[in-house]
Amino acid sequence: MDIQAIVSLDRTKCAVQCNSKKRILEIISGIAADNNAEVEAETVLNALLSRERMGSTGIGNGIALPHGRLPGLANVIAIVVTSDPAIDFDAIDNKPVDIFFTLLVPEEQTEGHLQTLALVAGKLSDKETVKAIRRASTSDDIVKALK
After folding, report:
1. Biological process (GO) annotations (predicted)?
2. What is the CATH number of the domain that holds 100?
3. pLDDT average, residue stretch 98-111
């Protein structure tokens, strides 16, 4: 799978104002529901919160990869959000997070889920990509940085 296949402008938001882990996950859930008739915000939020209870998806360097599996979902959905300011997300390096790359996958796609997470983590390990995302002033800039 290619990142271009899952990232879209309508599910990307730049410099969202919020101040908590729960609030950013609510915002992400709302974006997912607003742009996909298959999902409801509450279902997405519950899936993301459930995953976070197992351990933070904050992978370090100001990046988090919230993710969850959803029943009834046909295809992988990505939601990319940056926050201003960065927020406490219980990341493994204890640094605040400002880049949130969320993946929602069909419930039965266990192997595909892991491969997609690995693809995204690889893309976000590229320092130039991360710098471009942080420099972004619009959602379009974020999408361009990821492609």
Report:
1. phosphoenolpyruvate-dependent sugar phosphotransferase system
2. 3.40.930.10
3. 87
Residues 95 and 62: beta-carbon distance below 8 Å: yes
- pLDDT tens by residue, 25-45: 999 999 999 988 889 999 999
Give the ranges where the chain is alpha helix by DSSP (H): 3-6, 21-34, 41-54, 110-124, 127-135, 139-146
pLDDT of residue 110: 65
Q: Which residue has the tokens 């130039």?
A: 128
Q: Which phi and psi (to 5°) does residue 16 adopt? A: -65, 135
Domain assignment of residue 54, given as a range: 3-146
Could you give the CA distance from residue 144 to residue 147 in angstroms, rounded to a whole number? 5
Q: Where in the sequence numbering do the catalytic residues fall?
A: 67
63-64/12-16 β-pairing: unpaired
**pTM of this structure:** 0.94
